């Protein structure tokens, strides 16, 4: 019967028990419920199959109770105390005039009255069960300190009275004598196991234990009935939580190691910040249980993102990182390798762990991240997605899994958590479900939950994706382990997110030097007297006879000896190896890097150029194409005839030539499939059929690599982080994030500042992520004008004069790229776009690349390149020389970058100054092309030098390039003249008149010769 009735009754029961939705019409429901049941009863009397099966069962029991009556009942009267709607009553049925007929009045037999009461009470009991399932978590005893819900301790599996906050009025009308009476258990519960009915007193005891004990579970909001059944069986079925003895001893060992580790660090490094795990050490049990359970379901790699609290403990006791490598970080030490390093609780690792229980091996990664706590979330997910795609596992998501570890205050307070959850089911961003584990200290820095969130739980964000949420008492390691196991099984079964909230406390302050009594005196008085989880769990297992004192002593001494041995080993180490902390598996790639390794030419054969251009210019077959697409393709065909390419063709040529050579290419961002400005059109949609499209870059070459282009969710912070994580998995994949407009990068500044530009310096992490930022003053107002070029240049780690200008040009350029933290370009030609994208993969090392891309130039007739400029033996031009001006007559050399170049050459021509003004384009601003600038300007010995930009003086590239131009030319700074907009706090004016006047003024200044 459970299977037959599951779907209809569950959806209806949800209507029954969510009484708040019916609050406004409660009195109406009270007067109509009896009439509706009488109506059903009459139908049933005529034909039992005419009513839902659930009512057939109820009415059958009612008839059995009334079998001794002398008169056959003609009607059924229901208690006026009933305040819930029957399980298959829908809103439209309530208003049915057939339900409002008055019942016939007659005398009832005793058996009939008892049958009515039984039916009435049975409905109440089922409503009671659903109430526990829905609201039990609000009163659950999950707080070891007893601050939350202090009255909940009375319910811990012993009480036979339900808490009022859970059940409200569901037992109204039930008397003491009914508590020992058996009631049938409906399909909504597994509380009886194999039993179909239980005494009410036993029902309440079991419900109190499951829903109001050390576990608070939220899941009734999930839409899928099969998921509800699965979870119900995992937690309600009697005996489900029981663990074998050897499993519990394994749990004890994990608790012992977690607690002993923290004590050891406190003893050896008392004054040091370490952000210890004290108060939530059962988190280590949870993590190791997750690894064991995931491995049982075929997982080969877990990627972990977490804040600093508990990280050191996790590195050692979960990831099996050698302890001495961590202990060396507690003393002054030199660093070997590229970079300046980071504090120990921000570092990551990549290891292979041997699992103790299953004897399987699993790769574990902790991604390095800064103190911007949750910023790493989407980075982790992107990293996992990349591995799934590489292993052909993207559809199932079995072999790689993301584990995100949150703090309670951060999970509810950081917006990236919400954005991360919403990537769960997006086709090109999903990882088949994420394990979210909350280290719930019930405090954030010095702020308690009453002032840091508005929701009942810190995990309410998990509800947006129908993720089940398990709130677990941190001092109950058995239950923590069981819930961790169920969480992994759920993820494997349903490929959805799941949240495990381990509710503990923080024994010390925010860090070990902090005094928590200043802000939470009452909480910390309780903490001071509260025993740690090792003491609690040891006493429990001693009492049960699972372990004895000699066993405890032996195991603790063994682990302490290991810690001491590793401490001694750490004292002998004088140099930190950054390679010990790499969080990416690029060992071979790193070992082959050298600043003097040449960068190959990036051009391709004319045969490939023609083939690619032809394929991206042909309308796709069997699809109705929009007229704008035809115009774009026709334009490309005309360009091919003249052996020219435009911006979008240069991009396609770069992508497809890399795909041909086996390099995966991924382009992601808002509206990237067609391009914000409708210039790209990589995905062409059928105009008459839904969900029918063609990817223009697929199947151009036999056995080409995967090309993914995906319109993203509207989250710059989340998606940019995702693509950064994606780029960390494989060094030979070209991964690109494009902002819809350049200023959208403002929304993901944490990713750019704290993870991308400084990743190699802090963590030895090399990535080749490309960021495309549409940039240019188009008279469209303050927003969508500037990508804040100045910010990216300010984050470059080169100093003026880092490189001698008399070195060999090619070698110097390679060394500059090798040592710089990232590359910043403002390009003007399709050929340079083509070369710089290919260079990202052909370089023997990886650097992030930031490109200020054009808007109006995407269709500008002057923004074209020839086939010869991308053919064999061609390469990227960091500086493009002037081929028009005659060196001997030039009086002024203008250096510029980006769109302003085309306005300058147009103005120069209009004023007939081609022979007097030379215009050089600095395509690569960082690292600055000292050598090219020096060599080119040497051709104009009698000229003045000016930097011209369309941005305001305090923005754009001026302050970065001015010093470098002066150094390259060995001239005073004042000799580098400026033409551009005056300084401003806003990126651009909103007035068309002001904009035009500003443009005219800067062009006048640029063309002025005296």
Automatic annotation (TrEMBL):
What are the names of the required cofactors?
Mg(2+); thiamine diphosphate
- Keywords of the record: Glycolysis, Magnesium, Metal-binding, Mitochondrion, Oxidoreductase, Thiamine pyrophosphate, Transit peptide
Pfam families reported for this sequence: 2-oxogl_dehyd_N, E1_dh, OxoGdeHyase_C, Transket_pyr
Q: Quote the EC number.
A: 1.2.4.2
Cellular component, GO, one term: mitochondrion
Q: Name one GO molecular function term.
A: oxoglutarate dehydrogenase (succinyl-transferring) activity
PANTHER family according to UniProt = 2-OXOADIPATE DEHYDROGENASE COMPLEX COMPONENT E1, 2-OXOGLUTARATE DEHYDROGENASE
State the protein's name. Answer: 2-oxoglutarate dehydrogenase, mitochondrial
Q: Which organism is it from?
A: Ceratosolen solmsi marchali
- Source gene? LOC105365231
